[in-house]
Amino acid sequence: MTKGLLSVFTGDGKGKTTAALGLTFRALGHGKKVCFIQFIKGGWTSGEAKLANNFPGLLDFHVMGKGFTWKSEDLEKDRQAAREAWAFATRMIKESTYDMIVLDELTYLIRYAMISEEEILGVFSRKPEALHLVITGRYASPGLLQAADLVTEMKAVKHPFASGIKAQKGFEY
Ligand code: ATP
Ligand code: MG
């Protein structure tokens, strides 16, 4: 039987979300069912969201509400959005209809004290045995790192942003 892994991609370098997408692509190729949940909605619609929408049935892709941001004026509203997003993710984990669930940018929920690490780890510890969970985001908390089976830290060595090259469609998003 499959040993479902808890994987974490963290660090300040580029490649966390795209690593999760790579695993998604690989799993789908083997006919596995994958659910990809994005906790932060950026300003642009990503290529991955478009692909999922253009090929219904390929991948269950969810961008949660308006997400939340640390720039927000209405923190209470953000907290509510985060709670709803987490409730949805919890349901998907418990239902066990998927082989892999990606929680993209989940680490910020803990970082900005939207959901406690304890609550999140509690849900993870009760996940279906065969389910692979993939977490991405900067500032992964110590408890999450400890609970994980796999941790990779992306290290920023060089990024085009530093030379003034702005985010490009099809590469950054
Ligand atoms: P990607 O989605 O390309 O795999 P990521 O998930 O590792 O990147 P995030 O921390 O989620 O990166 O940041 C989101 C955006 O910031 C992406 O457009 C990414 O390309 C960009 N980014 C990532 N690392 C850096 C960096 N060191 N400097 C500037 N921008 C960055
Ligand atoms: Mg990312």
Q: Per the principal axes of the C-alpha atoms, what is the gross shape? A: globular
What would CATH call the architecture? 3-Layer(aba) Sandwich
Number of continuous helical runs: 6
Oligomer: single chain
Element pattern in H and E = EHEHEHEHHEHE
> Radius of gyration, Cα only, in angstroms?
16 Å
Tell me the strand order in the biggest sheet: 3-2-4-5-1-6
Q: What fold name goes in the CATH topology slot? A: Rossmann fold
Report on this model:
- This protein has a six-stranded parallel beta sheet, with helices on both faces.
- It is 36% helix and 16% strand.
- It contains six helices and six strands; from the N terminus they run E-H-E-H-E-H-E-H-H-E-H-E.
- The model has no long low-confidence stretch (mean pLDDT 93).
- It is globular and about 50 Å long.
- The protein has one domain: 3-Layer(aba) Sandwich (Rossmann fold), CATH 3.40.50.
- The chain has helices at 16-29, 47-54, 75-95, 107-111, 117-125, 142-147; strands at 6-10, 34-38, 60-63, 100-104, 132-136, 150-153.
- It is of the alpha/beta class and 173 residues long.
- The structure holds adenosine-5'-triphosphate and magnesium ion.
- Adenosine-5'-triphosphate is lined by residues 12-18, 136, 138, 154, 156, 159, 161, 167, 172-173.
